[in-house]
Recover the amino acids of this structure.
């Protein structure tokens, strides 16, 4: 796991400011409220709304 639990607890979705959860495959942060997936590249979460992928 690339993201430490302490960091995951303070990160928030940039769109709704809600909590995020860690997805393993592909490695990403998921906002269930917005249905967005924020990618993690080289152990760095990309927290840009424009870079997020919509979830079905």
């Amino acid at each position: 796991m690339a993201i430490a639990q302490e960091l995951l607890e303070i990160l928030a979705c940039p769109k709704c400011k809600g909590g995020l959860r860690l997805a393993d495959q592909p490695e990403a942060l998921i906002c269930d409220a917005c249905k967005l997936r924020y990618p993690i590249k080289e152990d760095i979460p990309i927290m840009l709304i424009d870079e997020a992928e919509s979830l079905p």
About this structure: The domain at 5-54 is CATH 2.20.25.10 (N-terminal domain of TfIIb). The radius of gyration is 10 Å. The first strand starts at residue 21 and ends at 23.
